[in-house]
Design goal:
This protein is of the alpha/beta class and 799 residues long. Among the domains are: 17-110; 122-248; 516-719, Adenine-n6-DNA-methyltransferase TaqI, Chain A, domain 2 (Alpha-Beta Complex); 726-793, no CATH class. The chain has 26 helices and 27 strands. The N and C termini lie far apart (98 Å).
Length: 799
Amino acid sequence: MAGRGKKGKGGDAYPDFLVVDQETIQPLIVGETKAKEGEINLAIGEADTYGEAFLDKGLSVLAAGVAGDDTSNIEVRVNKRGGRDWKPVEYRSNPIQWIPTPDETNLLLTESRLFELRPRVPSNEILAERGESLNRILRECKISDPQRPAIAGAFMLALVTSKGAIRMDAEHILSDINAECKTAFKKAGKPEIAESIFVPVQNTKLAAQAAYICHILRLLNITTLTAEHDYLGQLYETFFRFTGGNTIGQVFTPRHITRFVTNLVTVSRSDLAIDITCGTGGFLIAVLHQMIEGKQFTHKQISDLVKDHLIGFETEPITAALCVANMILRGDGTTGIVKDDCFTSRAFPVGKASIAVGNPPFPHKKTDDPPEKFIDRALEALTTRGTLAMIVPSSQLVKQTKKKWRVKTLKNNSLLGVIALPSELFQPYAAYNTSIIVLEKGVPHNKDTQTFFCRIENDGFRLKKNVRIEQAGEQLTQAVEAYHAGKSIPGFCTVSKLTGTEWHPGEHIKSAPHTTEELKKEISGLIRSLVGFHAHYAPHLSFFKSLLDDGELKLTTYGNISNRTGRHGIDDLNCVGGLFDIFYGQKSLHNKENLKKGASLVISSAASDNGCYGFFEFSNLIAPPFVTIQSTGSIGEGFVQTWPCGVTDDCLVLVPREDLWCKNVDLDDLFIAAATVRLERWRFDYGRKITPSRIAEFKMNRDAELKAWIKSQRTAASRLMSDTLDTLSGKAVEQLEKTFSQLADQWRKETGMLSLAQQKAIHPAYQQIIGMGKLAWANRHCRLFSGSFKKSMNIGFGH
């Protein structure tokens, strides 16, 4: 700056950095850096001088000083002009340790009395980037997957409790981190846990990288953590992305779901909350957030809340240590976190808590504790009229083996709510269908009790390349509002009396017609599946068609085959059961392994190739068109069948009602019906079976514009399938005939029996032709084959 030196004297000088507004290019922050740690006062002093120069020109700016580098302690100081002096911008009476964002800077510059900033929450993208860096470093340092979260937690705890004042040289940094962690655990009254979370001081590679790890954590504002945000839990989530999720034998609940669960219960400052399987403390921290949200609390008050109002039990040593560390980051760590078994611990608070939350471990073996054991134990911790909100496997809500437990539970408690969660919630680390149950203790559930049922399809994230990324349209907020208001929204949630003994929302939420856009997306997939099936099986379909055209295979309507009724008492032409007779598949195809290769198409519970199981010898073919729905395997997948076929009994068959076909029902309705059932498959799993009566009531959107769109898509697909069938079948048959002719010629030149190797060479090609149904052609080439050779291949030629 012309005429202004670093110390305010004459001469020209230049600041080390300048932050400007991207649009106006107006200066926002002027900064000075120093390479040596401990020179922060010099850096901020020179930055203040530059700030004065800007003020002289009529430009308001902040002054920022930075001292140190990524191999030492980095200090940051930000000042703002207040009155005659430059004063530090603070958080909780301490100077902030980060450079403010443009938005924060504009706020500070426009609010003359504002000198307090809260640490900003790192975005998921930034956390993912930093998590990737940390994981790479720890992997290169030969740290095993289970140890990485613990080591990250140790670094974090040491930085926070020491406020960054640990030695950064490779000789001392790891021992300083361990010493700081031990001191923190001892101060928290948990010295026995200290041995579970530490860094290996003998690891020279880790020692060399430790200062850089601290640098990365500082970039996340780790030394100014707030009680309002679960940095530790969120950072673990980013670690699990790289280490497989279940790094220490547990699957952790996503942070946005812990918030959602606790939002379902009404939390006040006087509540005592318990999580009997607390993991790293995500649910308890979510409860704490509710207690302090929208209120101004001192650090001492928040520490007292942590100490007196949160109780957790955890048996896994590393996880328990991480949970205590999480609490230390919010106070002094003196909490009710207990490293012990909730079923046997003498510290278990029977009848004292007002709120119970959590996600108990799901059983993997018969010897594992079942979910109901954890629910019953959590209820024991509650006072009368206390509230329980816990995640359970959806099978708990429907399985007959759990029926007695459900009945017993409702004799003493009320079921306030059941909310089905997205099936991919815990993927890619685990695949569970889960739901949240909300119970009120000590108030028996009677016939007039109203229960809230809801199904969350979009929790704000979707799975992409084994990573759950954010997406628009989350329904969690809407669900919380509807729960507390007792509101019903068609197809999404309902408030109703409990009927029967099933608790699953799929039993209680009535279906609503799906939107045109939802159906178009699903139907596009159905048409692609149909086209792909034709491309894959073109040779087989070509010959299958020739047999059908020649009348060698007979068709019949399925109602005549099944000898059952397909009607379900529904006459509404906008319901699946109003347009279709619904049957189970053919019992004669129950044992699929007994089928012999042949010409007839068989559909099963396969989820690809339009449900095609293969081509076999089978004569009871169902006349198309109809819809098949998988009732096992890929439950709820549906396909439109346009070829005659047999259907195994692990599928349902939806046949257009004869009295309505063509007049009220057309091929477009089959695609709408299949897509509708697919969109409703959230209601079903191995515990809650898909049945004709359950899908009969599904509402269908038969909008004229939608049907016109389907017709146009079908027309284009039909041309493509026809061309594919002609082209691919011709080429495939030509190639197979050429291969088989060569082998047959080889046989003609031979005398006596073929060798075993020659038999094996001929057999696959012959079987391919048999599979396409080219029996007559094959027989013409096989007249010279000996009977013993035919017998060795177990093939009959006289079909």
